[in-house]
């Protein structure tokens, strides 16, 4: 009898590289990788072993449809790939566990902290982690400042105010009531990919410079040897219950580190990490089959990755 151990990647969208990385490792263990999204126009679906369509996670039928599809397809593990997914699965983790479905993500409290800009800012203050200075009001503010919606993601919900008048106008039209005002930090911005094992221990860390950013996502990125950023991730990990792949955003200027956010999921340019020493798809698949050695190879620095558009043609006989 086949074991229930297949993998579902939710909100696959355009994450073709991520899907391919998991399929490469899953094939070694005879595991099928399923994809799910709200539309058949999500191109990454067609690179999965199989896929199915789900309603939006706010739909009343989402959870029932999800569980039914997982049981039908012998799916034991779910990999969330968006902040919305993380929040939903944190709320419904117990129900999924009762149905013998495990979500491959960090602890619920850590997810609630890291998906909220306000909660993360407070957490870092309480634990002495280096973050940009934040303001409680527009009084005595040194401009420019960054204004972030509480649940902003990438460049969405993030605004720059050069003066008080601009800040007032931005806040006036915000679609949310809660927001964070922070100092504008100078310096090179970095992403730090890291993997934490099932006991919450960091196994590998890869800092990379964000050389060209479009829509909040690195399209050109280079692995770099910056011990200060590796220490930052390890210090952060000691304050949270982490598991799997995470991506930390930080600035580094004149020897000073400034922590911006922590995304407890894969990032859009995490593919560079897979080939330079942080092979999280391999380690997560091994975890799924009970292999927890997490063998780590040397981190490779000064490796550059370019992201580019490609085409996938469906439904035509082409010579």
Task: Kindly provide the radius of gyration, computed on alpha-carbon positions and rounded to a whole number of angstroms.
Answer: 20 Å
Judged by helices, strands and strand pairing, the structural class is: alpha/beta
The name of the CATH topology of the largest domain is D-amino Acid Aminotransferase, Chain A, domain 1
Termini separation (Å)?
Answer: 41 Å
Return the string of H and E elements: EHEEHEHEHHEEEHEEEEHEEHHE
Shape: globular
Mean pLDDT: 93
Q: How many β-strands, per DSSP?
A: 15
Largest sheet: 6 strands, antiparallel
Sheet with the most strands: spatial strand order? 14-13-10-11-12-15
Number of helices: 9
Per DSSP, what share of the residues sits in E-state strands of 2 or more residues? 25-35%
CATH homology superfamily name of the largest domain: ATP-grasp fold, B domain
Can you tell me the CATH class of the largest domain? Alpha Beta
Q: Determine the fraction of residues in helical runs and give it as a percent range.
A: 25-40%
CATH second-level architecture of the largest domain: 2-Layer Sandwich
Flag low-confidence runs: none
């Amino acid at each position: 009898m086949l074991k229930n151990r297949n993998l579902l990647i939710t909100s696959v969208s355009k994450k073709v590289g991520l899907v391919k990385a998991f399929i490469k490792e899953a094939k070694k263990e005879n595991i099928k990788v399923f994809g799910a999204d709200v539309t058949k126009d999500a191109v990454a679906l067609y690179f999965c072993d199989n896929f199915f369509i789900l309603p939006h996670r706010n739909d009343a039928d989402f959870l029932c449809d999800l569980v039914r599809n997982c049981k039908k397809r012998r799916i034991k593990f779910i990999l969330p790939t968006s902040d919305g997914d993380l929040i939903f699965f944190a709320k419904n983790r117990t129900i999924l566990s009762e149905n013998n479905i495990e979500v491959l993500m960090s602890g619920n409290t850590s997810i609630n902290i890291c998906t909220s800009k306000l909660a993360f800012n407070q957490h870092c203050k309480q634990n002495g982690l280096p973050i940009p200075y934040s303001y409680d009001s527009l009084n005595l503010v040194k401009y420019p400042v960054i204004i972030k919606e509480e649940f902003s993601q990438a460049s969405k919900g993030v605004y720059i105010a050069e003066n008080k008048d601009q800040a007032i106008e931005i806040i006036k039209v915000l679609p949310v009531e809660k927001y964070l005002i922070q100092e504008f930090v100078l310096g090179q911005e970095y992403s730090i990919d890291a993997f934490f094992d099932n006991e919450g221990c960091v196994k590998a860390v890869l800092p990379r410079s964000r050389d060209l950013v479009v829509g909040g996502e690195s399209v050109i990125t280079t692995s770099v040897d910056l011990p200060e950023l590796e220490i930052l991730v390890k210090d952060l990990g000691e304050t949270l219950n982490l598991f799997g792949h995470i991506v930390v955003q930080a600035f580094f200027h004149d020897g000073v580190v400034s922590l911006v956010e922590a995304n407890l999921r894969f990032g859009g340019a995490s593919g560079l990490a897979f080939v330079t020493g942080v092979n999280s798809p391999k380690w997560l698949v091994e975890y799924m089959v009970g292999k927890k050695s997490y063998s780590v190879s040397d981190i490779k620095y000064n490796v550059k990755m370019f992201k580019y558009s490609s085409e996938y043609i469906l439904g035509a006989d082409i010579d």
